[in-house]
Amino acid sequence: MQTTVREYYEALREGEPLPPFFAADESLVKFGISERLVGYEAVAEGLRDQTRESEDWTVTSSDLRVTERDRHAWFSDDVHMAWTDTGTDTETGTGTRHEFDTRWSGTLERRDSEEGGTEEWRFVGMHVSVARPF
Hints:
By secondary structure, this protein is an alpha+beta fold. It has helices at residues 2-14, 40-52, and strands at residues 29-31, 36-38, 54-61, 65-69, 72-85, 97-112, 119-130.
C-alpha cells in the first residue's frame, strides 16, 4: 500500500492521470486544500481539471505512515507541495506559484483491477489540509 501512495505522489509530480488511483465508487470523498469532492465522477473531473490547470509540481513526503489490514489500509503523511498555475498572471506574464506544507490522510481498499485478475489498492477517501501553526 505504501507503494501506491508513493506512486500517486510521482504521478502528481509528472502530470500523469490521477483518477485511476481512486475507487470508482459514489461514496468516495476527497478533500483538497480548497475543495470537497464527492463521488468518483466529481473526483475524476476535479483531478483532470487540476492536471490541466497546473504544472511543475513538487511533492516531498517527510513522514509517511501506513497500516494495512486485509483489504483495507490507511495512511498519513506530512507533505511539502508546490505547483504553478498554467493560467497567466496579467502583471507578471507567468502562472502563479503556490507552496504549502500539508497534512495528508486517507483510506484505501483492495479492489479488482480494471484489467481483471489482480487486485490493486484504490483510494476510497483522501484528505489534504494546510498545516498552519496557531
